[in-house]
Task: structure prediction
Amino acid sequence: MTNNYELYKVFYWAAKTGSLTQAAKVLFLTQPSVSHAIKQLEESFGITLFYRTPKGVTLTQEGSILFSYIEQSQILITLAEEKMHALKHLESGELRVGGSDSLFKHYLLPYLESFHSSYPDVKIHLNHGTTPEVISFLKEGKIDLGVVRMPIVDPQLEVQESIQLQDCFVAGAKYADLKGKVLSMEMLLQYPIILFSRNSRVRMNITELFQSYGYSIKPEFEVGSVDLLIEFAKKGLGISFVTREFVSSELEEGSLFEIQLDVQLPPAQVGIMIMRNMPLSITAKHFVEMVNQ
Result:
């Protein structure tokens, strides 16, 4: 039994055109080559597939049955080729991105809007999660890339630095007496602190920073989103640790103000994370290039 696709292709065009000469023209072959291919196929099955007539060739009953299957495969191959062309030109496909709600909303949204505007037929899927969850999504093949806070140390992953953010402590009107004052870590810890939940990269970073100075930061409230950090601080429930860029409008309008500390809080790097040595899809590659421009 042959498994040579080229023989089936010759058979298909001979049956479709009813002529070995026409099949040869379509396939850019010589007529003897077409005749030989048909003979090979017939010999492999031990079945006559064509009747030879003065006007060309016609299918035998067995040949007609084979043609019904081969025709379906040709249709599928044509559709596959069209699909590959569409994917190459971003006329279809999907973009799967993982990240935190805050990074999607406050950092990635303009890029997603721009990408969707340029390639409206590409479906965009956002997978929300903490940094460890996003790493799992990537390794399990659920996303093409992740947008995460650094550092990420994992030999399976490659992270390209994208932007720099600055974290800070903010408070609302209830703590207005702290405006303009410079607090030590010890003084800050006398107030109720509001932090992200334990498994976030932001939470880990601030915990490690305080520990490096010999302090343990124990929050009064733990929340899972930037929006809640902002709202809790505005309502006077405590002092929130947030990313300055994510509360720029609140700081500008005066509903929140930044707490000044006597130590410098290190900047945070955001990176685009992909699997090392794994090629990106055309869609994901275009998106990464857009973000990096």
Observations:
- The longest strand covers residues 157-165.
- Residues 282 and 289 are 11 Å apart (CA to CA).
- The chain has a mean pLDDT of 91.
